[in-house]
Design a protein that fits this description.
Shape: globular
Number of helices: 8
Structural class: alpha/beta
Strand order of the largest sheet: 1-5-4-7-3-8
Radius of gyration: 17 Å
Order of helices and strands: EEEHEEEHEHEHHHHH
CATH topology of the largest domain: Lysozyme-like
Largest sheet: 6 strands, mixed
CATH superfamily of the largest domain: Peptidoglycan recognition protein-like
């Protein structure tokens, strides 16, 4: 059976109804951290796992749909982005087959781009609402990781990117404006999550380059704090 956008339908029992919103307004990208795409697919369809995603995308571009996009898959855990504190209810989850230690192959990236393009059009989701698991789970998750090519997606309007240059700035104030959510003492986790997406080559203390990119992102893509004020379900 064929799912959305030519995906092979491989249904998971691990889903429910969205809570507090009628339609998804975020797209969340993951990597599987498993050696086999099919192994990840089967785990996400195992009722004992109590996890799922809407899609699993293999290295060769093979795409499986596990959960209908209108339903709530279980992929985000206790994450938050801007005002959204039930990310599962507001997002479509895509699990991309990768261990986290190697580049994402060309057939896989092309298939992801096609899927994102159709999905964003279908649900009216802007590029600023295509985010990583690492953005919503500070200090807990790092996927899709440093090897994922966010810049490539950004150049096509399928995510966002910044090439801002060095300058001083209020990094953490701008990080909140952009959408990161954290508690006192998690500042290092915020910096790490930001760098995973926008400066994966960077290391060491907070720099002027970090501040410049964060200021640019906050100015151009402030998170809509009135989207999805759903309580954690």
């Amino acid at each position: 059976m064929i799912g959305q956008d030519g995906a092979v339908w491989h249904p998971s029992p691990n889903f429910g109804a969205r809570r507090g919103c009628d339609a998804p307004d975020l797209i969340l990208l993951h990597y599987t951290a498993m050696d086999s795409a099919r192994g990840a697919r089967d785990w996400l369809c195992n009722p004992d796992a109590e996890v799922s995603a809407h899609y699993v995308l293999a290295e060769d571009g093979q795409l499986w749909q596990l959960v209908d996009e209108a339903a709530r898959a279980w992929h985000a855990g206790q994450g938050a982005w801007g005002a959204v504190c039930d990310v599962n209810s507001h997002s479509i989850g895509i699990e991309i087959a990768n261990t986290g230690f190697h580049p994402f192959p060309e057939p896989q990236m092309r298939a992801l781009e096609d899927l994102l393009r159709a999905m964003m059009l279908r649900w009216g989701i802007g590029p600023e609402r295509v985010i990583g698991h690492s953005d919503t789970a500070l200090g807990r998750k790092i996927d899709p990781g440093r090897r994922f090519d966010w810049q490539r997606l950004g150049r096509q309007g399928l995510a966002i990117w910044s090439d801002a240059r060095d300058e001083a700035g209020a990094f953490f104030e701008n990080a909140r404006r952009f959408g990161y959510v954290w508690e006192d003492g998690q500042e290092e986790a915020v910096l790490n999550a930001f760098r995973l997406r926008f400066r994966p080559w960077a290391d060491g203390p907070l720099s002027g380059a970090d501040c410049a990119v964060m200021a640019d992102l906050a100015a151009r893509f402030p998170c809509d704090m009135f989207k999805g004020r759903a309580a954690v379900g």
